Amino acid sequence: MQNNKQKGKLSIKFIAYTGLMTAIVYVCTLIGVSTPVANFNIGDSAILITAAMFNPLTAMIAGGLGAFLADLTTYPATMLYTLVIKAIEGLVAGIAFTFIYKRFDKIENPTKKDVALKIVFATLTCVGCTAFMAGGYFICKAFMYGTMESALTSLPKNIVQALVSTLIAMLVLYAARLEKLRTKTQLVLKPQKQEKTEAEEDTNSAETEIETEEVETEERKEQDEQ
């Protein structure tokens, strides 16, 4: 019964977190930033933060659906491309962050070197995923416009967006220490020691119940014999 309740809570959490992050990705994608170099949005930052804070599936759904709805609102011509590109970006980032945290969460007393390595791997993950985003849009727009030259016009904007999104995600996660809240999300699994302790407690309680039942049975037999 307890396991079923826990699964129910997790699925409710999953729906709630995924819905919340989808809305955040949607809003961040609509927020345009104008610079002398290019115009871009901060939707990819929200996708990367979702990937780091939650799990690959949440990041994939929030990234793909949130950005898709934003394109549907503003520029429907690219909404299907966006759905695929941003979903893959979120999924890959989520998988990479899962491996990163699985590796570094095992360290009980992390040194400065461990923290630095974690941030380096996280940064490389963000750079790689946003580079995929820029390359994906370049290929898709080459198909849309029919020539590579036409697609090149939007490439600088996507490169700027990739770099700025990585910077914002890193600042929010590690400078603002948002990653400390990961322990409150469903992504973080219980430490093995804690799981073993809980399993032992369940076993002990079950054994105690059995022993109690045996004692009660023996007492009843004695009473019947008397």
Strands of the widest sheet, in order across it, are 1-2
List how many beta strands DSSP finds. Answer: 2
Question: Can you give the helix content as a percent range?
Answer: over 70%
What proportion of the residues form beta strands (DSSP E)? under 5%
SS class: mainly alpha
Q: Can you give the mean pLDDT?
A: 83
Distance between the termini: 40 Å
CA radius of gyration: 25 Å
The secondary-structure element order is HEEHHHHHHH
In short:
By secondary structure, the protein is an all-alpha fold. Helices cover 79% and strands 3% of the residues.
Kindly describe this structure.
The chain is mostly helical and 226 residues long. The protein is built from 8 helices and 2 strands; from the N terminus they run H-E-E-H-H-H-H-H-H-H. 29% of the residues are buried.
Produce the secondary structure layout.
Layout: H1 2-30, E1 32-34, E2 39-41, H2 43-53, H3 56-74, H4 79-104, H5 112-145, H6 148-151, H7 155-175, H8 192-225
Antiparallel strand pairs: 1-2
Task: Output the keywords.
226 residues, mainly alpha, two-stranded antiparallel ribbon, 2 strands, 79% helix, elongated
